[in-house]
Fold this sequence. Notes:
This protein is an all-alpha fold.
Amino acid sequence: MRGIAWNTVDGVPxxxxxxxxxxxxxxxxxxxxxxxxxxxxFLGILAGAAAMVVSWRVARDRLGxxxxxxxxxxxxxxxxxQWLVWAVAGLExxxxxxxxxxxxxxxxxxxxxPGRRAWISGLLFFLATVFRPEVPLLxxxxxxxxxxxxxxxxxxxRIALSGLVHGAWLLGLCGWRMALFGKPLPNTFxxxxxxxxxxxGLTYVGQFLAQNFAWIWLPxxxxxxxxxxxxxxxxxxxxxxxxxxxxxxVAVEGGGAWEFRFFRHAAARSGPAGxxxxxxxxxxxxxxxxxxxxxxxxxxxxxxxxxxxxLPGVLPDGLVALTQALGGRDAAGxxxxxxxxxxx
Length: 344
């Protein structure tokens, strides 16, 4: 071990880590004398625990559930093997999950409440991008979902401002990478994402559904969304769009080969979905759902229910999990059929 040093090929620096943010945190631990392996394991567990708390808050405050019912969020996460595996893996997966969930919830809040600063979500999405280079696609998806659901010129301006803030910081990051490494993305990203592999990607999605008993939870969540369709807060269409965008991306590029690792960004959103099961009329709704029932979304205009209901599959926010599909081993550690030799 040479300590902290550049990863070079023929003397030229190479960005050999997909997660710049995680690499910097590991380096920070080394600077203060900590073992980077133990330090990053601790950070991963901490991020996983924080994401569980945030998922509870999102279910309570943004989906309008009671504090007790909102406990379904962390409970659903704790019961998922993928959540536990990647919380203790010492990788950036849970940190990325946490940041994307917070950023998406913030963007929806900025549309619902015109008094909120509209640039903060863009900064949060950029911070998530530092941990995973695919995050801009999730930001684009959330903005598209909100644009369809909320409409209104003010809402579109806020969505655009969030994207511009993210884009400006991302341009600076890519410029720095180009100047130093000669490429706008990490070298590992190019090495692991190779062409169109739709058949393999669709196989992975099917394997995830089969191994995670989708025949039980998928109909329940769909029924819950249909039941609550007239009082869904704007966060839900944002997450629906993320599910559709990311599932398409993962299916096309073929996925990875480690325990469905690419459910990481949205795993925390599968928890709040557990609270979207049918509830009796008159059940408590939060600030967001109350605004929807009144027929308005701040200055963003009315929620276009017909558009929301027309979204393919009427998928709930728990199915953002599909956006990260793909991995490669079953519960016994056996490779899945057609698994790639590596992962992203």
